[in-house]
Amino acid sequence: MSYKLNLDKLDFQIIQEMMENAEISYADLGKKLFVSGGTIHVRIKKLEECGVVKGTRLSVDLKALGYDVIAFIGIFLEKSSLYDTVAKELRKIPEIVRLNYTTGNYSMFAEVVCKDIKQLRFVLHDELQKIKGIERTETFISLDESLNRNVVVVGE
Protein backbone atom coordinates (compact mmCIF):
# COMPACT_ATOMS: atom_id res chain seq x y z
CA MET A 1 0.00 0.00 0.00
CA SER A 2 1.38 3.42 -0.83
CA TYR A 3 0.45 6.65 0.88
CA LYS A 4 0.27 10.08 -0.69
CA LEU A 5 3.04 12.21 0.77
CA ASN A 6 1.02 14.42 3.11
CA LEU A 7 3.09 15.06 6.22
CA ASP A 8 1.97 17.06 9.23
CA LYS A 9 3.78 18.61 12.19
CA LEU A 10 3.77 15.33 14.15
CA ASP A 11 5.37 13.46 11.23
CA PHE A 12 8.18 16.01 11.08
CA GLN A 13 8.65 15.83 14.87
CA ILE A 14 8.87 12.03 14.70
CA ILE A 15 11.41 12.21 11.87
CA GLN A 16 13.56 14.74 13.74
CA GLU A 17 13.48 12.78 17.01
CA MET A 18 14.26 9.48 15.27
CA MET A 19 17.17 11.07 13.38
CA GLU A 20 18.63 12.13 16.72
CA ASN A 21 17.97 8.80 18.46
CA ALA A 22 16.77 5.88 16.33
CA GLU A 23 16.86 3.59 19.37
CA ILE A 24 14.12 5.41 21.28
CA SER A 25 11.09 3.21 21.90
CA TYR A 26 7.75 4.12 20.38
CA ALA A 27 6.34 4.45 23.90
CA ASP A 28 9.08 6.87 25.00
CA LEU A 29 8.81 8.87 21.80
CA GLY A 30 5.04 9.01 22.24
CA LYS A 31 5.47 10.39 25.76
CA LYS A 32 7.92 12.99 24.51
CA LEU A 33 5.52 14.12 21.77
CA PHE A 34 2.34 13.73 23.88
CA VAL A 35 0.77 10.94 21.80
CA SER A 36 0.44 7.18 22.27
CA GLY A 37 3.11 4.67 21.30
CA GLY A 38 0.54 3.19 18.91
CA THR A 39 0.24 6.52 17.12
CA ILE A 40 4.03 6.63 16.74
CA HIS A 41 4.02 3.06 15.37
CA VAL A 42 1.32 3.87 12.79
CA ARG A 43 3.05 7.10 11.72
CA ILE A 44 6.45 5.42 11.31
CA LYS A 45 4.87 2.61 9.29
CA LYS A 46 3.25 5.27 7.05
CA LEU A 47 6.60 7.07 6.67
CA GLU A 48 8.28 3.79 5.69
CA GLU A 49 5.58 2.88 3.18
CA CYS A 50 5.72 6.26 1.44
CA GLY A 51 9.53 6.07 1.26
CA VAL A 52 10.41 8.88 3.67
CA VAL A 53 11.96 6.52 6.25
CA LYS A 54 14.33 4.07 4.58
CA GLY A 55 15.34 2.08 7.64
CA THR A 56 17.78 2.63 10.45
CA ARG A 57 21.56 2.56 10.47
CA LEU A 58 24.10 1.88 13.14
CA SER A 59 26.54 4.76 13.62
CA VAL A 60 30.05 3.32 13.89
CA ASP A 61 33.38 4.95 14.77
CA LEU A 62 35.33 3.85 11.70
CA LYS A 63 38.67 4.95 13.19
CA ALA A 64 38.09 2.56 16.11
CA LEU A 65 37.71 -0.24 13.55
CA GLY A 66 40.97 0.66 11.84
CA TYR A 67 39.65 2.69 8.91
CA ASP A 68 42.10 5.59 8.97
CA VAL A 69 41.68 7.07 5.50
CA ILE A 70 38.67 8.96 4.21
CA ALA A 71 39.03 10.38 0.72
CA PHE A 72 36.83 12.25 -1.71
CA ILE A 73 37.29 11.52 -5.38
CA GLY A 74 36.24 13.87 -8.14
CA ILE A 75 35.50 11.76 -11.20
CA PHE A 76 35.59 13.13 -14.74
CA LEU A 77 33.54 11.12 -17.23
CA GLU A 78 34.37 10.87 -20.93
CA LYS A 79 30.77 11.95 -21.55
CA SER A 80 27.84 12.52 -19.21
CA SER A 81 25.71 9.89 -20.93
CA LEU A 82 27.97 7.25 -19.32
CA TYR A 83 26.84 8.19 -15.81
CA ASP A 84 24.48 5.25 -15.25
CA THR A 85 26.98 2.71 -16.58
CA VAL A 86 29.85 4.10 -14.51
CA ALA A 87 27.69 4.43 -11.37
CA LYS A 88 26.70 0.77 -11.69
CA GLU A 89 30.38 -0.24 -11.74
CA LEU A 90 31.32 2.10 -8.88
CA ARG A 91 28.59 0.56 -6.68
CA LYS A 92 30.53 -2.72 -6.87
CA ILE A 93 33.50 -1.18 -5.02
CA PRO A 94 32.84 -1.69 -1.29
CA GLU A 95 35.14 1.12 -0.18
CA ILE A 96 32.90 3.67 -1.92
CA VAL A 97 30.33 4.67 0.70
CA ARG A 98 28.70 7.64 -1.05
CA LEU A 99 28.37 8.60 -4.69
CA ASN A 100 26.85 11.74 -6.18
CA TYR A 101 26.21 12.98 -9.71
CA THR A 102 27.38 16.59 -9.63
CA THR A 103 27.58 19.88 -11.45
CA GLY A 104 30.78 21.86 -11.66
CA ASN A 105 34.26 20.55 -12.35
CA TYR A 106 33.48 16.87 -11.74
CA SER A 107 30.83 14.63 -13.24
CA MET A 108 30.68 12.55 -10.08
CA PHE A 109 31.96 12.78 -6.54
CA ALA A 110 32.66 9.70 -4.41
CA GLU A 111 33.45 9.29 -0.73
CA VAL A 112 35.82 6.41 -0.05
CA VAL A 113 36.71 4.83 3.29
CA CYS A 114 39.90 2.73 3.53
CA LYS A 115 42.02 1.18 6.25
CA ASP A 116 45.21 2.76 4.92
CA ILE A 117 46.84 4.52 1.96
CA LYS A 118 47.77 1.18 0.40
CA GLN A 119 44.09 0.22 0.21
CA LEU A 120 43.21 3.65 -1.22
CA ARG A 121 45.91 3.22 -3.87
CA PHE A 122 44.39 -0.15 -4.79
CA VAL A 123 40.94 1.41 -5.16
CA LEU A 124 42.30 4.25 -7.30
CA HIS A 125 44.75 2.30 -9.44
CA ASP A 126 43.31 -1.20 -9.69
CA GLU A 127 39.58 -0.55 -9.51
CA LEU A 128 38.60 2.98 -10.60
CA GLN A 129 41.01 3.33 -13.51
CA LYS A 130 39.74 0.11 -15.07
CA ILE A 131 36.16 1.37 -15.38
CA LYS A 132 35.31 2.31 -18.96
CA GLY A 133 33.95 5.83 -19.20
CA ILE A 134 36.12 7.37 -16.47
CA GLU A 135 38.44 9.87 -18.10
CA ARG A 136 40.39 10.79 -14.95
CA THR A 137 40.05 11.33 -11.22
CA GLU A 138 41.21 13.81 -8.63
CA THR A 139 41.58 12.65 -5.04
CA PHE A 140 41.26 14.66 -1.83
CA ILE A 141 42.27 13.02 1.45
CA SER A 142 40.38 14.17 4.53
CA LEU A 143 42.65 15.28 7.36
CA ASP A 144 39.81 15.64 9.88
CA GLU A 145 36.02 15.50 9.95
CA SER A 146 34.87 18.65 11.71
CA LEU A 147 31.13 18.18 11.26
CA ASN A 148 28.80 15.28 10.49
CA ARG A 149 25.14 15.84 11.25
CA ASN A 150 21.65 15.33 9.96
CA VAL A 151 19.66 18.15 8.46
CA VAL A 152 17.04 19.67 10.73
CA VAL A 153 13.70 18.85 9.10
CA VAL A 154 11.00 21.47 9.36
CA GLY A 155 7.32 21.02 8.62
CA GLU A 156 5.29 23.58 6.80
UniProtKB/TrEMBL annotation:
Signal peptide boundaries: none
Gene Ontology cellular-component annotations: cytosol
GO biological process: response to amino acid
SUPFAM superfamilies: Dimeric alpha+beta barrel (SSF54909), Winged helix' DNA-binding domain (SSF46785)
Keywords: DNA-binding, Transcription, Transcription regulation
Top-level division of the source organism's lineage: Bacteria
SMART domains: HTH_ASNC
InterPro entries reported for this sequence: AsnC-type_HTH_dom, Dimeric_a/b-barrel, Tscrpt_reg_AsnC-like, Tscrpt_reg_AsnC/Lrp_C, WH-like_DNA-bd_sf, WH_DNA-bd_sf
Coiled-coil regions listed in the entry: none
Domain HTH asnC-type stretches: 7-68
GO molecular function: sequence-specific DNA binding
Official protein name in the record: Winged helix-turn-helix transcriptional regulator
